[in-house]
Every structure is written in C-alpha cells, then in structure tokens.
Amino acid sequence: MWKNIRVLCLLVILLIVAVNAWRDQNQNWDKPIIVLLHPINADDQASTQQYIQQLSLSDLAAVQPYLQQMSAHYRGQPIHVYLNLGRELTQKPPKVPEQANMLDIILWSLKFRFYDWQQHERSDGTSAVTLYLNYYDPERTRELKHSTALEKGRIGAVNLYASKKQNEQNQIVLVHELLHAFGATDKYDAATGQPLYPQGYAYPKQQPLFPQAKAELMAGHIPVSADKSKMPDHLQDTLLNEITALEIGWIK
Ligand SMILES: [Zn+2]
Fold first, then answer.
1. Residue 114 C-alpha to ligand 1 middle, in angstroms?
2. Which of 105, 179, 235, 239 has the fewest CB atoms within 10 Å around its CB?
3. Which option is the CATH number for 29-183: 2.40.110.10, 3.40.1190.10, 3.40.390.10, 3.40.50.1820?
4. What domain of life does the UniProt record list for this protein's source (predicted)?
C-alpha cells in the first residue's frame, strides 16, 4: 500500500517535471511574452549604483521593435514581447564557473535555478523569462565575463556595462541571451570567437561572401573575411538567420 503511494508520488513529480520541461522548450509565440529584468550592482561600485538608479526601459528601447521586426519576417506577424523592469536585487546570482567540467555546470545550473526560485515571486505567473542583469562599471571592468542563459527554467545571467555609452552593446547582449532562453544556440567558434560558416552568417549565400553587412545575432560578430570579424554597433546591424529562427520556433 505505502509502496504504491510512494511510486504514485514519484510518477506525479516526474510528470510535472516533464510538462514544465516541455513548456519551457515549446514557446507559444501567439501569446504575449513578458521578459522580467532584475538589475544587480555586480561590482559594488557607487557609479554602478548611480547607473542602476537612473536605468529605465528607454535605455533598452531598441529591443522590442527589433524582435517584432525579426519575428514578423519569419512568422508573417510580429510577436508581442514586453520588457518589464523589476526591482533591483541585492543578492547576486551564483558565479558561472570558469573552465568548468560537466559536473560544475550541472551544479551551477541547479544553484542558479534555486537562486531564481528564491528571488522571483512568480505571483503573477505571466513572465516567460527572467533575466538577471549584472551591471559593471566599464572603468573598472575592461572585459565582461560571458553571459549565460538556460532554456530549462527560462532564466539568464547577463553581464552588462553600467554606462549610457554602452546601451547599444548592452541591448545586443541582452537579446542574444534572451534568445538562448528560447533555445537558440551560439554560432561562433568558442576558441577564436569567429562566426561559424554557414550558421553564424547573416547572409551565408551572398556572392562574394565578404564583406557581410550584418552579424548573425547568435554569432555576435560581423565577418569581414574568413578569419576576421568586427563587433556590430547597433542591434540593427544584426539579424537572426533561418537556423536561429528554426531553433526558437519561428519557422517550423
Ligand atoms: Zn551565447
């Protein structure tokens, strides 16, 4: 009797986990998508604090029209995506392990999901994704560590610069990570940072291949030649190619 109840409990838990995982991997793009953003003073600087205090959605104004334009191109109609600036958090998300093995990554992703569960009051239950925005003063941090987003759990830790001058770059990083949360994969060579051909190219069929006018957003850089690339200045200098559109479910 007790054994049967225990087995039943386990089966119910497994079913809930499976349903959640399926839901996280199959976004219904006809529904409105709410992206909750929590800014964090990641380097404990007064300058960073100042930036966060005056931060508003107007600093991220390019994100919504970009996603509408890109989705309309592939779906025939735009998605309805809304950014929602949540409260500043004092507790920092767990640090992404460097030179990590598989176990480190599994442990980190569990810690991150636990952190998300602690921070995030899902009382309204409407947010599709939560991004934790770690802000750093560019005067103190020359190079930002890699941002990470998890498709399972729909959460991301995004490293950004606490500077108005970096708003354009910040928006590129933010949308890149947001699309990871919907299943898009990186399209650059991890060793060199170069866009992979053809999946990391905005116009892989262009003749001649170089120069490319835009970056594929999940590759992050505009290929200038077979072994050189440059950073895009604006979100409008990037696009999502068909492979990324397929990964996130904009084309079937
Ligand atoms: Zn990435």
1. 22
2. 105
3. 3.40.390.10
4. Bacteria
